[in-house]
Amino acid sequence: MATSLLPVSGQALDAQSLVAKIQKLCPAAQLRPDCDRPAVKVPLAHWPVLAQQLFASADLLFDLLETHTAIDWVQTGQIELVYVLTSLQCGHHLTVFVDVARDNPVAPSLCAVWPIAQWQEREVFDLFGVHYTDHPDLRRLFLDDDWQGFPLRKDYADDFMLERPS
Amino acid sequence: MGLVTDNLPGALLPLPGGGALLTAIDQVVNWSRANSLWPLTFGTSCCAIEVMMATGAARHDLARFGAEVARPSPRQADLLIIAGTIVKKMAPRLRTLWEQMAEPRYVIATGSCAISGGPFLYHSYTTIRGADEVIPVDVYVPGCPPRPEALLYGLLTLQKMIREGTTLARPGEVRKPVLAALPDGMTLHQVRAEIAELVQETATVDRAAAATVGASYASASRV
Amino acid sequence: MNATVATTLRARLDALPSQSLLGTQEYFVNMGPQHPSTHGVLRLVLKLDGETVHQVIPVLGYIHRGIEKICEHSNYRQLVHLTDRMDYLSALANNWAATMVVEKAAAMETNSRIEAIRTLVTELQRIHSHQLWWGVFGMDLGAFTPFFYGFRDREILTDVFERTIGGRLTMNYIQPGGVMHDIHPELVADVKAFLAVFKPRLDEYEALLSENVIVQERLRGVGVLTAQDAVALGATGPVLRASGVAHDLRKAEPYGLYGQVAFDVPVGSRGDCWDRYAVRMQEMRQSIRIVEQLLDNIPEGKHFLVKPAAKIKVKPGVWYSHLETARGVLGAMLVSTGGEAPYRVHFRTPNFNNLWAVTTTATGGRVADLVAILSSLDLVIPDIDR
Ligand code: SF4
């Protein structure tokens, strides 16, 4: 591939046609309007198939998983997984949101599609406690193995942390 | 503390003039120690760039003070310059490094992180609030990061302490110059009120002025 | 040593039967967290057979400070200074990334003077960062002189920063709504003086290290990262470009004044250590080009458009923006539920994603090459751990 892999060698799609295209691939995907960049919300069951399609479809070509993280919505009892995707070949972006239940967060691992996901998922496992099925090496990434709890969850508390006095 | 006084007890002391001789020998030994410190290259984060690299490079030239022989192995070093944040996972490793160092060993904590946790004091679930929770620290060099000159000053201070024999040796010994974290159950307002009270008690010149200062301490809501 | 001798030596080494044929055992060696070549507290567990590396397992967390959690308890101004402490060698670009996302979320305006200053100082810091990398890279290969040369010239630039910004390393300069202080009246003259000194010295760097046969031997063909692997492993910045992918956010999605200045994006072809070295050397020259175009064209205007103490409020939503630091793509994600503090902040850091290239590139090579590979990735460990 070497020098042939240049950015913007494909066609960059605008937000509307991008979302329309994705809804064609996966009708259950919904536009998430409160984002500044094209974003869709995808039901968990459809996500692994759609991920593979996003990576492989000739006019989408999301080759780079720029980042993967999570948001803990403690009030609604959901952990929202966030996937920020970039296509270096086409030059467009997409953010995908996937909800998992907070008390039993299980999601499929995407290592097979984007290898970097292996470590990004380990980070989310470490800090949010999301379990990824079919992950080759799901261990804590930053914290010690015997750490209790998941610190980026909103209800995380321990005796060590200090509140900033107001 | 010194080599001769520690290791040859009673041999010289009973002799006439033995005490003076011991002191003289110790002074020479401590003088030499102070001028040939071998630092361990230990940097965990941002401070390392300033205090390990910039200070060691040509412009600030740590070599002028006899401390340029940086060793990557703790067993060959006797000065630990803590440059950067210490987190829970690193703390046991820091303790191991310190224990592996040649004795007598000295510690300089540079930067607010190594002094108190610095910018990561509040709401961090991992940051240790000061390296002296883990190992004894002789000299604190404040800054975020401290300038190379500040480290040089800290080094000179340490050399003075070594010559005077006033460095710390045992873990648990703490000579903390800063309020690292609030004492349990105490709010910042209480601390400020206490400071205000102290100001009032100790002010002998102008009680009225001191009262205003105290009041402004007590009423200020943010640092 | 001349080139042929070095080449034959390498050929003979490579022709030796692999260690496993000799019936040796695999064993594990810990490199770090206290190791001079990992540039901080990175720990690598190496599975070795003699000198051959069979597997590299990075172990992280020795400087995980919980920055994302602290951000949730900070307001939109306070979180900027924490970004200084992630990739402290690109502190200004980090400030800018946080500022950019806050400005986007709060719909804050800037003017062309602010954008020019931001572009100028960030580009200067790219040089600043590469100078340090070059010095340390030389040191890791066993040459001590580059370290002194690199720092000698870096100090001049540090002084330039200090005059305007007040800081030498952690800048906290680019703020939502502007920049902290207006530029020093002498800044332009200072930078010109620096460039006059530094441009010939850059040639000296090339003569000292780039044209050195030993350096070439140790870098060429070592630690090859293919374009596919680089993209799959999330690598960005010089690491990605050295593998032949001309992706640079300054070109792809111009921010600041990058759309108005002329510069090239250096690209490698093989993705070995040499290409990563050469790309950064070229980048310094391109940064000089950008700085020269900006220097005499800083527009007049205010350097701060909102009151520094003004509260910033953000309506509910999710924002993401990214830019190119000296090491790659730094993304900042902001989740707000309204009010003065973010609900969640996430930083996509270039080093976290660049690190994993070491797991493929070092495998099968020798231990000594691992040090060159690590150094060519130019990692900043607190940026990995956050
Ligand atoms: S004191 Fe400041 S510069 Fe030093 S390690 Fe801590 S945050 Fe970094």
Descriptive account of the structure:
Chain A is of the alpha/beta class and 166 residues long. Chain A is built from three helices and seven strands. Chain A has a single domain, classed as NADH:ubiquinone oxidoreductase Nqo5 subunit (Beta Polymerase, domain 2), CATH 3.30.460. Helices cover 20% and strands 23% of the residues of chain A. The N and C termini of chain A lie far apart (56 Å). Chain B is α/β, with parallel strands linked by helices and 223 residues long. Helices cover 42% and strands 7% of the residues of chain B. Chain B has helices at 3-7, 18-34, 46-56, 91-100, 111-116, 148-164, 188-202, 207-219, and strands at residues 39-40, 79-83, 106-110, 139-141. The longest helix of chain B is centred in the N-terminal third of the chain and has 17 residues, at 18-34. Chain C is mainly α and 386 residues long. Chain C has a domain at 109-310 and 364-385: Orthogonal Bundle (Cytochrome-c3 Hydrogenase, chain B). Chain C is built from 16 helices and eight strands. Chain C has a three-stranded antiparallel β-sheet. A three-stranded antiparallel β-sheet of chain C has the order 6-7-8. In chain C, helix 3 (78-84) packs antiparallel against helix 4 (91-105), helix 4 (91-105) packs antiparallel against helix 5 and helix 12 (273-295) packs parallel to helix 15 (367-377). The two termini of chain C are 43 Å apart. The chains are: A alpha/beta (166), B alpha/beta (223), C mainly alpha (386). Chain A binds chain C through residues 1-3, 5-8, 32, 34-37, 39, 63-67, 69, 71-72, 82, 84, 88, 91, 95, 114-116, 119-120, 123, 127, 140-144, 151-152, 164, and chain C through 60-61, 64, 66, 68-69, 73, 104-105, 226-228, 231-234, 243-247, 252, 267, 269-270, 316-322, 329, 331, 333, 335, 343-344, 346, 348, 352-353, 356, 385. Iron/sulfur cluster binds next to helix 3 and helix 5 of chain B. Iron/sulfur cluster binds at residues 45-47, 84-85, 111-113, 118-119, 144-145 of chain B.
Summarize the SSE layout with pairings.
The complex is a heterotrimer of chains A (about 170), B (about 220) and C (about 375).
Chain A: H1 15-25, E1 30-31, E2 39-41, H2 47-56, E3 64-73, E4 78-86, E5 93-101, E6 106-108, H3 117-128, E7 131-133
Parallel strand pairs in A: 2-5, 6-7
Antiparallel strand pairs in A: 1-2, 3-4, 4-5
Chain B: H1 3-7, H2 18-34, E1 39-40, H3 46-56, E2 79-83, H4 91-100, E3 106-110, H5 111-116, E4 139-141, H6 148-164, H7 188-202, H8 207-219
Parallel strand pairs in B: 1-2, 2-3, 3-4
Helix pairs in contact in B: 2-6, 3-6, 7-8
Chain C: H1 3-15, E1 27-31, E2 43-49, E3 52-59, H2 67-72, H3 78-84, H4 91-105, H5 112-140, H6 145-165, E4 174-175, E5 178-179, H7 187-210, H8 213-219, H9 227-232, H10 237-242, H11 249-252, H12 273-295, E6 317-324, E7 329-336, E8 344-348, H13 350-355, H14 357-361, H15 367-377, H16 381-385
